[in-house]
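Troubleshooting: if your tokenizer reports a length mismatch, compare against these two reference records.
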Amino acid sequence: MKTRRKIFMAAVAASLMLGASACGGGDDADSGDGLGTVKVAVGIRQTFEFLPAEYGKELGVWRKRGLEVENVYVQGSGQVSQAMASGQAELGLTAGASGVDAILSGVPSKIVGLIGKDFKMMLVVVPKDSPITDINGLRGKTIGVSAAGSLTDYLAKNIALHQGWPESDIKRANIGGLNEQLAALESGATDAFVWSAEAGFALEEQGKGRVLFDFGEVVKDNVFEIIVAGDSAISDREDAMRAYLEGWYETVNHMKANRDETIAFMVKTFEVTEGVASKTYDHDMANLSLDGTIPELNLNGLATSVVEQGITDKKPAVETFWDDRFVPVAAAG
């Protein structure tokens, strides 16, 4: 068992103990007046794939189904798992591998829907005037990642794997957040860094960086972002879970059909420029699932990736983390 997973399991165990009395109902559960309220832990506030969390509320997709939604914004996928373990949330929007990590660590939950299966929403950014022009130019270079064992670390490692290079041909530096990544890039401490599409496009617009490529062709047959639900919510509030998923995919379908309206909402909600919002929409929209289904090939790829990321030593069976009862979701309004 890897050390970092032991630390994560300890944090989850503490959350489970603290939240034991919070799980299984209460004032926010079904109250006889509609479907009650569901709390949703959201790992990142300003990222396109989670935009439906707020846009759906604006559109009223859940209220018309008798469901109230309260978004609980946290800092990263690990805190999504802790929020669910402690009973602060019944649903979570998180990274695929992080969701599986939590389940294997004892958080009673399952993946119930797909947000995005491809990793094209993650980019490599280089300095604006960098001589590096393609993926081959990264050999022997230093790439900034947020932390060891993180998603960005896994993606940087996959560059060497994809190119058939020794892992040592890509040097990975644990830098931290976006501001720290930019400072390291500008000082020459790193040659590139891995981050999300919105940030990459914003840095391009500001003249502070250049997007080299996305990971859509580097990491294939996997699962990027997911919707995860607590086991008790699935068993005790199945109608509420179904209503949430119907509303989510209705929102995604609305976004696909209404580009300009979606961009305007993104500008207002994320406080980005129209140019960044437009570029992000055009780059990311096609990657959002319209009905929540995850292909078997991608589920197996996700199971393999949690071993590659050091989350567990043995490939888990798909049924330990995936519940397909809700998909494909009929999202018609």
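Reference record two:
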Amino acid sequence: MRIRTTVAAVSGALALSALLAPAAHAATPDVPLKDTQKGDTKITKAVVNGGKDIVVGTTAKKKFTIAVTATDAKGIEGGGGLLWHGRKFDPQHISGVLAPVADEKCKKLSATSATCTVSITVNPKASWDDENGLANHMAGGGWKLFAAAGGTDDDYVIRTAYKTGIHLKRAARLTVNASPEPVKKGRTITVSGALTRANWDTKKYAGYTQQSVQLQFKKKGASGYSTLKTVKSDAKGNLRTTVKASADGTFRYVFAGTSTTPAVTSAGDAIDVR
């Protein structure tokens, strides 16, 4: 079927040819790299990762789906898509791509419509110019969806730049440690910690610097935490501040997240005040 061939060809040409080689387009001259439509096939909905941001660390592969819903008077035979990042949908301007490596699975909704789903596996261990690999420049928004669908009558539609609103984010970690413990009431407690996030270039976690993080405290027996102050991470992502010991309870750090990094909350560290 032509639509399946088109999606596969674009996936292969862009993902496996390092995206930037001018020969990639020349090698697949029948692949449209622009919006194209034949007949009455229409894409009515496209959902990436269930509408949630995609968060990836440094080692574990991350699997997500793209679901494309389409209609055609004669019925839908197939469809799918891939994510791409860059200024323009051509090999010279794309700076990242996440593409499926297997055929779509379609669920018939009616005689004229169906939702076709493809699975994509992100590999943080791979370089960004390898198949579904990552690099730091790919973090954040700006990801667009190449979506395509085809009818049983060989009608088809290609949309190169659906805006997804999805962010690809570098996984974060946050720690806390309150000391000394136990401590006398009125004495100084030092609350330290560290905010780190995945570095897809080095494949390791590194400090997330100059970020505002809230220090929160929950008094023993209380139902929730209260914010005590805001602490900024230093040049290595470390956190450090002091408070006066007042009562038994638990400290934690809370980071609200950014466009490239998700929100994260540390585990709690209990303090015994005597």
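Descriptive notes for reference record two:
- Confidence is low (pLDDT under 50) at residues 1-31.
- The first strand starts at residue 36 and ends at 38.
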